[in-house]
Amino acid sequence: MYLPLAIGFFVGLALLGLGSSAKFDELFHPAWANDHFIYEGDLIKLKLDNFSGAGFSSKSKYLFGKVSMQIKLVEGDSAGTVTAYYMSSDGPYHNEFDFEFLGNTTGEPYLVQTNVYVNGVGNREQRMNLWFDPTKDFHSYSILWNQRQVVFLVDETPIRVHANMEHKGIPFPKDQAMGVYSSIWNADDWATRGGLVKTDWTHAPFIASYKGFEIDACEVSAGEIANKCKSSGVKRFWWDEPTMSELSLHQNHQLVWVRANHLVYDYCTDTARFPVMPVECEHHSH
């Protein structure tokens, strides 16, 4: 989809038709445990019990653009469970952008963990709680990706930015097409209080619900070259417009607020894991 003129972040996205959602089976298909899917019209539910979790993946792969879906997380005691929503390429040197929703005991907040892998290297976790209860209603979770930045958004509020700092010698994910995935699974060896709180299977099945599937991105088929998804003199992609190269002033204020009030862990400040600060942390603006 092309946009000949940069007309602002939110207005631009609205004009590009991101308000309309596709049906699940237009974009995705079950990847495993088909018998743990529940279909209720446009609503999809994934079920985790002591036999299996479940997961789905996109039918296509993409290079740059924006993916969104609305998710309602497991209600009640969800300790030990993880609902993952992410983009990933293939192979040992893959790129990946993760949302991982870490369950907790009743009354404790869900933690949202984000992570970025570049050329197979991850360990870039940040964790935060949210300014709402993500188990009571659907909320939109999005990943915006272009040649300048990767932005994680919750209800269109940015919660993390991974900027392109190749000029500092830091690799940036820009040349591997990615699929879109989501799953629910048992991770009680680490998910809740570092694995101290285990999954209580008497509360199973654990249900994560999905709707509002949106992908506005450059679809890439096997063997196609990456330049297909980059703007040139004869074609313009909205994600390459100048307004998309960095956050707006309002979005910067939102990001500062979120991190000041809800960030509970940042790998950049974890001196036990990283006695020497990772290079990109020296250049983060937030």
UniProtKB/TrEMBL annotation:
Domain GH16: 1-210
Protein keywords: Apoplast, Cell wall, Cell wall biogenesis/degradation, Disulfide bond, Glycosidase, Hydrolase, Secreted, Signal, Transferase
Subcellular location: Secreted, Cell wall; Secreted, Extracellular space, Apoplast
Pfam (any one): XET_C
Gene3D superfamilies, sorted: 2.60.120.200
Modification after translation, per record: Contains at least one intrachain disulfide bond essential for its enzymatic activity.
Enzyme Commission designation: 2.4.1.207
Membrane-spanning segments: none
Keyword hit for Transferase: yes
Cleavable signal peptide: 1-21
Role: Catalyzes xyloglucan endohydrolysis (XEH) and/or endotransglycosylation (XET). Cleaves and religates xyloglucan polymers, an essential constituent of the primary cell wall, and thereby participates in cell wall construction of growing tissues.
Recorded family membership: Belongs to the glycosyl hydrolase 16 family.
PANTHER family reported in the protein's UniProt record: XYLOGLUCAN ENDOTRANSGLUCOSYLASE/HYDROLASE PROTEIN 8-RELATED
Full protein name: Xyloglucan endotransglucosylase/hydrolase
Species of provenance: Hibiscus sabdariffa (roselle)
Lineage: Eukaryota, Viridiplantae, Streptophyta, Embryophyta, Tracheophyta
